[in-house]
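Recap from last week: sequence in, structure out.
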Amino acid sequence: MMARVIRNHDLVRVPWKNGGGTTAEVAAFPEGSGFETFGWRVSMADVASDGPFSLFPGIDRTLIVVKGNGIELDVEGVAYPLDRASPKLSFSGDDITTGRLLSGPIRDLNVMTRRGQFRHRTRFVESGVALLSEDTTVAFLVPLNGPFDVTLDSTIHPLQVLDTLMLEATQDLILFSGTGRAILVEIAPDRP
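Predicted structure tokens:
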């Protein structure tokens, strides 16, 4: 099984689509694709000020606050506070969205999939075991507040906070050990 550790400190910053900041791409498909051509994209952004979000027509998004005190997203006039108690929101990239920081800068994890091609699911996991959904083609695990060891095929992959383990589909149990919790992202084909 293919598994690759992507270290947080190795991520390369790129400008946001709207020019209002930077993001670090964790992975995208197809590899090397741009904002207009990706089928799916996982990235991390540092948000230091309030402002509008880029529009991504035809894209489904999930934003998860992974560091900081939170942000309030206004999606088409409806406010959604994201904080430590409730850190994630899924919304359409077609929707006019603005962000207002609750108390200081944040880092967020963004998952985006192109409607009609791919879809995604996110869930929080702690020490124990997990099984990927049968239709998952690629998955990502990101520790949020403590180191994690992930055991796959008797190989241990040590992860620090905000490192990412990218793994191909498997129906084997995945063993997690560590402190705190992590976010598990699963990407699957978008079938009717």
